[in-house]
Amino acid sequence: MSPPSPPPPPPTHRGVFEDFSTRRTALIRALTTDRDEFYGFCNSETEILCLYGHDDGSWEVKPPEPMVPTMLPEPMTGINLCRNDVSRVDWLSIVAIHSDAWLMSVSFFLGALLTSDERYTSVSTIKYK
Amino acid sequence: MSPPSPPPPPPTHRGVFEDFSTRRTALIRALTTDRDEFYGFCNSETEILCLYGHDDGSWEVKPPEPMVPTMLPEPMTGINLCRNDVSRVDWLSIVAIHSDAWLMSVSFFLGALLTSDERYTSVSTIKYK
Predict the structure, then answer these.
(1) Interface check B123 vs A, CB under 8 A
(2) Nearest CA-CA distance, residue B35 and chain A, Å
(3) CB nearest to B94's CB, from A4, A97, A116
(4) How high is the ipTM of this complex?
(5) How far is B106 from chain A (nearest CA, A)?
(6) The pTM is what?
(7) In the 8-state DSSP scheme, what is residue A61?
(8) Do B3 and A86 touch (CB under 8 A)?
(9) Rounded distance, CA A13 to CA A15, Å?
(10) What letters, b where the CB count within 10 A reaches 16 and e where it falls short, cover A54-86?
(11) 30-49 in A: which are within 8 Å (CB) of B?
């Protein structure tokens, strides 16, 4: 099995930020303007589903990657399994919080080969997003 | 099923940093002074294992949490499945990179209720760790 390793691109803090920004925009769209569609996709009570924000600007609800270890950190699994236990607003907030944490893990994974100062610059840029 | 939600503590950026610092110290110990023991725990080629750094300063190799969604973001799963495909140093580096990304996701999850400036302060503190 091939081990996961940080892909070469994006090698710069600008590249990391652009990846973060694109995925974040996709996730915000899923949780706001597309929230009804997103909510509907999470109607399974048996399958385990995740919300992915992709680096092409799209979002997707699907089961977690079947092959582990995965290349990128994985988002929260099973977002659908608690959907009906809380209000819609609370559920969207929970998914948003986990999505935010996932975005940071992806950025720090992609930026693993940056220097400490470059990573700090990435976070500084992210803060003002 | 109870939905995951951010636990009340730690409510401050200092609390988030202390949680980060304690988990980080545990993970560094697993990957350095305890590396032989850690390496030995990851000898399964069938079970899926993760490396956890706990907030009591201990580290643990175990399967991922069976119940999803989980309370906290989960670390990389299946670290053992690629152990024998690369050199020991490269494998430890891969686990370290994923552990670093996981630490950030935990900190941003715990700090979800902080303001933007407080989160920035947390990251600034983490930078100088």
Answers:
(1) yes
(2) 19
(3) A4
(4) 0.89
(5) 7
(6) 0.90
(7) E
(8) yes
(9) 5
(10) ebeeebebeebeeebbeebbbbbbbbbbbbeee
(11) 48
Q: What type of residue is B92?
A: L
Nearest alpha carbon to residue A70 among B48, B72, B104? B48
How far apart CA B92 and CA B35 sit, in angstroms, is 8
Burial class (CB in 10 A: 0-12, 13-18, 19+), B21: middle
Q: Are the CB atoms for A110 and A122 separated by under 8 Å?
A: no
What residues are paired with B51 via a beta bridge?
B61
Q: Where does A1-123 show beta strands of DSSP type E?
A: 50-53, 59-62
**pLDDT at A2 exceeding the cut of 80:** no
Cα–Cα dist B124/B104, whole Å? 12
B124 neighbourhood in chain A, CB within 8 Å: 120
Residue labelled with tokens 């099995």: A1
CA B30 – CA B61 distance, rounded (Å): 10
Average pLDDT over residues A63-67: 95
